[in-house]
Amino acid sequence: MKTFSLNKGLVALWYPFIFGFYLFCTPALARNTLKFSVSQQQSQVNGTVSDGTSPLSGVSISVKGQQKMVVSDFDGKYVITASPDDILIFTYVGFKTATIPVAGRSVINIKMQEDATALQEVKINAGYYSVKQSERTGSIARITAKDIETQPVTNVLATMQGRMAGVNIIQTTGVPGGGFDIKIRGQNSIRSDGNSPLYIIDGVPYASDPIGYNQTSSTFPTVTSPLNSINPDTIESIEILKDADATAIYGSRGANGVVLITTKKGKAGKTTFNITASSGVGTVTKFIKLMNTQQYLAMRKQAFINDGITEYNPWDYDINGTWDQNRYTDWQKELLGGTSQINDLQGTVSGGSENTQFLVSGNYHTESTVFAGDFLYKKGGSQINLNHRSEDNKFRLTFSGGYNAQNNDQPAFDFTYDARSLPPNAPALYDADGNLNWENGTWDNPLRNLNAKFESKTNDLIANTVLSYELLPGLVLKSSFGYTDLSTAETRTAPSSVYNPAYNITSATSAIYLNNTDRSSWIVEPQINWEKDLGSGKLGVLLGATFQSQTTTRLFQSGNGFSSNSLIYNLASANNVNVLLSDETHYKYQAFFGRINYNWQQRYILNLTARRDGSSRFGPGNQFANFGAIGAAWLFSNESFLKDNSWFSFGKIRSSYGTTGNDQIGDYQFLNTYTTSAVAYNGNIGLQPTRLYNSNFGWETNKKLEMALELGFLHDRIFATVAWYQNRSSNQLVGVPLPGTTGFTVLQSNLDATVENTGLELTLRTSNFTAGNFNWTTNFNLTFARNKLLRFPGLESSSYNQQYRIGQPLNIELLYKYKGINPQTGVYEFEDTNSDGRISFPEDQKTVVDLNPKYYGGIQNGLSFKQWKLDFLFQFVKQKNRSYPMGFAGQMSNQPDRMVNSWQEPGNNAPYQIYTTGYNNDAVTADYLYTQSDASITDASFIRLKNISLSYDLPLKNTQCKIMLQSQNLLTFTSYKDGDPEFTSYGFLPPLKVITAGVQLTF
Predict the structure, then answer these.
(1) 32 CB contacts (<8 Å, ≥6 apart)?
(2) Burial status of residue 427 (CB atoms within 10 A of its CB: 0-12, 13-18, 19 or more)
(3) With 50 as the cut, is the pLDDT of residue 714 above it?
(4) Per residue in 762-786, pLDDT tens?
(5) Where are the beta strands (DSSP E) in 753-867?
(6) In this model, does residue 8 exceed pLDDT 70?
(7) For residues 792-812, b (16+ Cβ closer than 10 Å) or e, as one string?
(8) Dihedral sign from CA coordinates of 239, 242, 243, 248
(9) Judging by beta carbons within 10 Å of its beta carbon (0-12, 13-18, 19+), is residue 251 exposed, middle or buried?
(10) Can you tell me the distance from the alpha carbon of 348 to that of 350, in angstroms, rounded to the nearest whole number?
């Protein structure tokens, strides 16, 4: 049905009456024939837009002086109606604007030139508003889909590694579905779980709180994170807000930085189909060099000699002849040396008119593991985006929705520890019949744990709608509505089949652990934005409010005692069922925020932001707090004395100061809370207290200061930024220790401690070569960061006195001071700090070692020649880390091959102490002290070819075909000897080296 607008209809009806009346009153004109100039005749002009090597889609083509505009399609083709004397204007982000006269032509093909200066005019997402790169007063780092699509990764945090100054990201495990750790400008909170940034996806806050349970997520070093649900392939850009000017508008949630994720949107033009398929493999990046059988047995024999034992024990199977002493198995290759199979398929349909654009996409990912066994991680999802604006450009609607599902099937335990500790002459995994080999009960076959499984299913929905209407020129009303819904179900089984059948352990001992976590939230954010040119300046005012609610339910259960292992997933079949945790929490948040921005003559910019937050996580009287910031910038390159400089193209000094907050403490911390007691009284289940009441604690506060200089040379072909920052986090929300007589260990409260993060960030972007068909660009970033505990009243008497030191970073280790090896006894020796004649804790554990990186960064290069494109990124980190602890050398456990250089006899000057089977108590104790001393700290710096991508565009007609070869973690250069230098947790799989090949079709 066609809707008729009365107002527009009346106007249309008036036109012929007015025109006829005009002709009637002007006889002379009525008698003359109306003539039209030839130059006013309209005709179609078409052509192709390219960058010299490949077509450019999304280029805006308009007719000068008219509202008419079209956009080039995926082949770079366009069609526009123009007269012979018109002038066409071609504009595209990152390229110089081209002005081409039609001159009577019907076909106009154009090659656009890249323009580094134009990148300063790109608008970036700053959260509630967007701002030009050249005019921002805050610190915002950014990557786009162009950077993301070259990386074969599944986690959104992996896309940013090594690409942003001030953003340190570490992968915690190579197991599919594992997590990452991110810190933006350091650790602000003493609480390890209080340093997560705020994530915003298309305007909707996305809770990053863990959804796993430590009894079910045993495959990973940390519990399951919801961030794996975000599909990197759907992302258009990621902005990281770092300083006060950028983050203060998010108030209490911006202390640790803000991660803004914008998904891809449809573009005007004909409907475009894009299909991408890739397949690849993943392997462990680096193994520890362990002893072979000959070296291992020599160590074992010497250990018995050192201990004065002349006869081997019956249980010394590796050396007493029970096991084959000529057998050798590289257990790292056997248990971790498999090949992970990785497959990806993605399809996108997009297009639309000038007023309405759409995008619909779907994706599917599968990934096996490097472990033995048949395990698979599956991830799939869909994304839909819809943009619409009215004919008069006053009303706008944006809708985005994404649904992702994960199904992860993994072994319940990581095999890394077994792979590194098993003797090299241990028996074969399988017997002659293909069954697990138990070698007459002489060992625990590591593959027994294949029967214990971890399974996880996660479903995640994110939806957002933004409505806006321009009431008056420059005055826009807008409101954002968001909704998220996440559910996860995890299980871990511990069946009796993990034991040797000879022990006759039945399914009555089998157990299962379950985790069911659901989280949903909604948010409404009404806003009003006003922009007005005032004299030589421009004023912008933003006012808004936030109303948010989040509900989380958790149910942790266990069951044991089954009649059969085939019923282990049926909790009703368990003899004993325990509810370990059952809770429902509600989090409510509301805020009012505002921004005032004034830009005078494109030279002086002032930006004021403020926010008043209210959170249900604090008690009465402390639920509300105020946060704000001021940012200023001087674009001195726009001053008259520099404006026309031929070599100096851009210069800006900016600075900001403000406060943000942190409420990452969980819910109901200020209340007396109770839980059900496991003890029945008179047949009734009672209640027991779980937390003491304290309604007096308030917000954690972070004061941020930054100063930066931005310089561009040669039309921004060389662009550099230097930024210095200082963040001070005070009023720390931690648990204050209580005497055990109270029945509680801690009381949630504010601690008058201050943590400072300072740093220097350097970024450099260069356009090295742009000529003809060849282009070469480079991006470099480098961060020097320093973390320090400035004050902590009562530290010496607190429970943190063996964890922190005033004036030192939070991430330190207090260790014994290693002196060397006693040349007579061959045992490690340590410094007796308090001179009491013995090595004791904590009196002698005083040596401070900083494990924070001294500096980190990355250098990325992009080269293109005709249809070829090459992109590669080197990541580098200067850091220290622990050596991998393997236990004392000489026991029935393999060791690094460097341990062959151990002490043998009095007078030896060896780097490692005497072998022992465990009977030399001094050596056993000394080995433990060694792992807790500064001798266990070693250089773990590395340079890694983090990502490399090579692609070729096949010159096909009517279809774009791109062939791609990509790799992640391809090469690692390091002096670290104990495996991958990035690891942070012992006994877990390091990151994988991934190589994929794929093809992309666009038509």
Answers:
(1) none
(2) buried
(3) yes
(4) 999 999 988 878 999 999 999 999 9
(5) 754-771, 774-791, 812-815, 818-821, 828-830, 847-850, 855-865
(6) no
(7) beebeebebeeebbeeebbbb
(8) positive
(9) buried
(10) 6
The secondary element (H helix, E strand) that includes residue 293 is helix 293-306
Q: Euclidean distance between the first and final Cα of the chain, in Å?
A: 33
Identity at 874, one-letter amino acid code: F
Nearest C-alpha neighbor of 916 from the set 827, 804, 798: 827
Rounded CA-CA distance 916/894 in Å is 13
* pTM over the 0.90 mark: no
**pLDDT tens-digit readout, 239-265:** 999 999 999 999 888 889 999 999 999
Per-residue b or e along 608-635, where b marks 16 or more CB atoms closer than 10 Å to that residue's CB: bbbbbbbbbbbbeebbebebbbbbbbeb
Closest listed residue to residue 324, CA positions, set 180, 191, 453, 426: 426
DSSP codes joined into one string, 623-677: SEEEEEEEEEEE-GGGSTTTTT-SSEEEEEEEEEEEEEEE--S-SSTTS-EEEEE
User: Which residue carries 């209407």 as its tokens?
Assistant: 469
Q: Which tokens belong to 132?
A: 């030009």
Beta strands in 932-978 (DSSP E): 937-939, 942-954, 960-974
Residue type, 845: Q
* Closest by Cα among 723, 724, 713, 725 to 765: 713
Q: How far apart are CA 786 and CA 794, in angstroms?
A: 24
Handedness of CA 353, 93, 147, 864 (dihedral sign): positive
- Enumerate residues 6+ apart whose C-beta is below 8 A from 353: 268
What CA–CA distance (Å, rounded) separates 701 from 704? 10
CB atoms within 10 A of CB 389: 16
Q: Which of 966, 940, 937, 941 is nearest to 951 (CA)?
A: 966
Whole-angstrom distance, CA of residue 946 vs CA of residue 968: 5
3 state DSSP class of 37? coil
- The H or E element that residue 597 is part of is strand 576-600
Give the model's confidence band at 119: pLDDT under 50 very low, under 70 low, under 90 confident, else very high.
low
What's the CA dihedral at 467, 471, 475, 477 to 10 degrees?
Answer: -30
- Tell me, what amino acid is at 648? F
Q: List for the chain the helix, strand, coil content (%; round to 5).
A: 15, 50, 40
Spatial CA neighbour of 783 closest among 136, 13, 240, 98: 240
Is residue 486 within 8 Å of 519, Cβ to Cβ? yes
**Helix or strand run (H / E) with residue 926:** helix 921-931
DSSP-derived pairing of the beta strands 648-662 and 624-634: antiparallel
Distances (CA, A) of 756 to 253, 699, 702, 732, 790: 18, 17, 9, 12, 7
Q: Which of 242, 278, 233, 284 has the alpha carbon at shortest distance from 260?
A: 242
CA distance 916 to 920: 6
What is the signed CA dihedral for 738, 743, 748, 750, rounded to 10 degrees? Answer: -20
Distant-in-sequence, close-in-space partners of 234: CB < 8 Å, separation ≥ 6: 263, 264, 361, 363, 381, 383, 402
Token pair for residue 359?
Answer: 């995008």
Total length of the chain:
1003
Cis check: omega of the bond before 101, within 30 degrees of 0:
no
pLDDT above 70 covers a percentage of the chain that reads: 95
Measuring CA to CA, how many Å separate 532 from each of 198, 597, 598?
A: 31, 11, 10
Answer whether 582's CB lies under 8 Å from 588's CB: no
Measured CA to CA, the distance from residue 738 to residue 689 in angstroms comes to 15
**Residue 190 tokens, joined:** 């003493």
Cβ 904 vs Cβ 306: under 8 Å: no
Three-state SS string over 224-250 comes to CCHHHHCCHHHEEEEEEECCHHHHHHH
Which pair of structure tokens corresponds to residue 847?
């040596």
